[in-house]
Design goal:
homodimer; 5-stranded antiparallel sheet; FAD-binding oxidoreductase (chains A, B); Alpha-Beta Plaits; 8-stranded antiparallel sheet; 21% strand
């Protein structure tokens, strides 16, 4: 098979030396490694199509790889057929920005383009692409779409799903679906495009995308607000939405227990409060126009909040520097937690209205079942997305025999609480190879069956990223 | 079968008397009438499920009917099996607002609820539901979702597709898909919900929906702008987007030939210009906050436009009354055209950047092939959605022998122009029973095949609204 693939992609397009393959087979945190016949790096959509035809004829599974920044092992190749280890398909040689339409505000790109490159290209024409992630220097468009990436700006612009205006997809049999017209309105049948978004590479290979651009933000206002409880935070959110609804760029809720860890482990972090608030709301308002008095808007809303007893204290950034300092604290969470111990992070989403009840119930379950853990809450409140964390000390963790089994027990317990409030166990991280059993356990059986049937239509031989998302059949 | 259905829905839930059935079998313009065994009006989702099970056992097709306001005959029952005329399913007895979540800004409703009732319910809690249509007093939620309804506010809020947060659907075999959790983020598999939106009742019966609410608008600014050409209008749109992007509530482009007809046929219309502009841009900016100077924003953008030579003249509404007068002219288009003659209306969408070229090319085709017609343009410019109209006098029309065939010739000619610019022949009106042949002719064959396969998964016996959207197989 390698010779046939060589004919298509040339020597630059194949990696088959075992030691050179390793980075393509291993997740970025080094926790899981897979195997494959080779790594193929096609340079065009037609080459992808030809590669897919060969894989189909050879009955080999195909494992698409983006920037390898996922958290759920969705890009680690693991065939369930030892005779057919499959090929890893990386599109990193497909990194062309195909077109920028400054009138329609659409950028069309190869799927191998890195997120930061899209930010730069948009910036040059005085537009922005509003998906912002810690991994933007590595994450590729194809992976971001396949995992329906989220982040802090979802509250305003929606997840990746809402930012995709068109797709180009190569199917398992090598046929190419061209859907890059990027029309704002089109009522000519079923919305197939949305099936591929968030499908984690199990339905086809995304090779190109048309993405929506937005006006550049010209000013912003930032506050760190002391609130007593998640319930008060939700009430404040409702007030912000009513008058500042279309200006909310970020609305993050963080527990004192979380910022305590940041203070402990991260240098050069400035905390503007003498005592850490029980709950911190970090808010950004922003706009592209010059006719809105954002400072007055934020000030007015905070005053209302004080008057209603919802705001204990608040620090408003008086300069860009202060705004950066506020958000630096928020963005230091991962670093702090890595130093503190073993954190089991959950990715629950419930309706915003249920966030306080979910946190209460999760706290009870954590205290009863896992008293050795401390708990931290980092919440994209505007989306009802709660990263509920149970943190175990290294000392305690090392006493556990079956660490994987223990972690699964923790996860199941918190997932159950989420589901109890009508929520999901995977808001933005996806399912990957980490959570297919949870998906099967918690998903409505009818929905699961329909997903299997859709999968069968697009990938009848089950060769597209097998074992990811849905259990292999 | 009627007895079995009576057992489920009771006597109030069945109409089988031929004369009483007529309004359920006829499109609202009275142009097309179908036939059916009976009309069934279930009062709950469980009743819908039971009805669907009976229809499955009896092998009868099912024709869902919403508020009967469609333009493409999608709700006219026409079985292709004379032995099995099928049943019409109306959900108008399911008109309950199930829940309003004022924190998460979600309203959950039965599919039979009328759009105007949702507007009222939202208004009561100081929110808005931003889908606005001429037919809002009759159109039902289920139909609006099944046809992915549009309107003038799509430029800001997107079409119905973007406003749906959750669905409840009864499948062809009577199984119920409950997807009403209405989470803003959920990455647990394929986005099945989006398949049913815009499927025109061919994949299942939408029985309930969770819809997104938005802040009430507190102020707005309106202008009627004289522009020389669609090209200048597009340039002006780009400027508006860059600074006022998130405030654009409407951005409509209308040709002088169209407003000439309004002036001729509609009483009590005030035209603020001595001479009708060659092209009229009608713009609304609006916001929910009280910290934005919308008048200054609009004034500033118009001044920029003057300075750049893009704006000939402009009338800014100085009062609510004047704003109403401006929009009254826009909304009088249908009435004027009905009086003028036989208008063949197209529903093309192209990327905004291609709108001027599309109009030019359509004008050439119209002048060459249909010199007897005048042409009018009514365009939701922000979405690239052009209602391009060829207007024939009654006198001329009556000389045509095969009027249906002639109309089809006109439509095909203009559709071809749209497709030539990467566009669609149905932006917001849908396919229905009017355009399945055009869909088959113009759709990418691979996409068409995938749609047939998806249809087969969800409706293996082809009993759901057969003949609508896809040709019967």
């Amino acid at each position: 098979m390698i010779d046939r693939l060589l004919d298509i992609v040339g020597p630059k397009g194949i990696v088959s030396d075992p030691s050179e393959m390793t980075p393509y087979l291993t997740d970025w945190r080094g926790r899981k490694q897979g195997r494959a016949v080779c790594v193929v790096l096609p340079a065009s959509t037609d080459e992808v199509a030809a590669v897919m035809r060969v894989a189909a004829e050879e009955k080999q599974p195909v494992f698409p790889l983006g920037g390898n920044t996922g958290l759920c092992y969705g890009a680690v190749p693991e065939s369930d057929d030892a005779e057919k280890p499959g090929i890893v398909l990386s599109l990193r040689r497909m990194h062309r920005i195909r077109d920028i339409d400054t009138v329609s505000d659409i950028i069309t790109v190869d799927a191998g383009v890195i997120l930061a490159e899209i930010h730069q290209a948009a910036d040059k024409i005085d537009r922005q692409f509003p998906l912002r992630l810690g991994s933007e220097g590595s994450a590729q468009v194809g992976g971001l779409i396949s995992t329906n990436a989220g982040g802090t700006a979802v509250v305003r612009y929606g997840p990746m799903r809402d930012l995709v205006a068109g797709l180009e997809v190569v199917l398992a049999d090598g046929r190419i679906v061209n859907d890059l017209a990027a029309l704002r309105k089109d009522n000519t049948g079923y919305m197939l495009r949305q099936l591929f978004i968030g499908a984690e590479g199990t339905l086809g290979i995304i090779t190109g995308a048309a993405l929506r651009l937005f006006p550049t933000l010209s000013k912003s206002a930032h506050a760190w607000i002391d609130v007593v409880s998640p319930a008060d935070a939700v009430k404040l959110l409702a007030r912000f939405r009513a008058t500042a609804g279309s200006f909310i760029e970020a609305f993050e809720l963080v527990s004192a227990s979380q910022f305590e860890l940041v203070r402990r482990h991260v240098d050069r972090v400035r905390m503007p409060f003498a005592q850490l608030p029980a709950w911190s709301l970090m808010v950004e308002l922003s706009t592209s126009d010059s006719y809105t008095d954002l400072d007055a808007m934020l000030g007015g809303l905070l005053e209302e909040g004080f008057a209603a007893g919802l705001v204990g204290d608040a620090v408003v950034a008086a300069s860009n520097q202060q705004a950066k300092e506020i958000w630096h604290v928020r963005h230091s969470v991962s670093e702090a937690n890595k130093k503190e111990g073993i954190g089991i992070v959950h990715d629950i989403a419930v309706r915003t209205s249920f966030v306080p009840a979910f946190i209460d119930a999760a706290d009870k379950v954590a205290a009863e079942r896992f008293p050795e853990a401390t708990t931290q809450v980092v919440c994209h409140l505007g989306d009802g997305n709660v990263h509920y964390i149970l943190m175990f000390s290294h000392d305690y963790w090392n006493t556990i025999d079956d660490q994987d089994g223990f972690a699964l027990d923790v996860e199941r317990a918190i997932h159950d609480v989420g589901v109890q409030f009508g929520g999901t166990f995977s808001a933005e991280h996806g399912v990957g190879r980490k959570l297919p059993a949870e998906l099967e356990r918690l998903c409505d059986p009818l929905r699961y069956e329909l997903m299997q049937q859709i999968k069968h239509v697009l990938d009848p031989d089950g060769r597209m990223n097998p074992g990811v998302l849905l259990k292999s059949q």
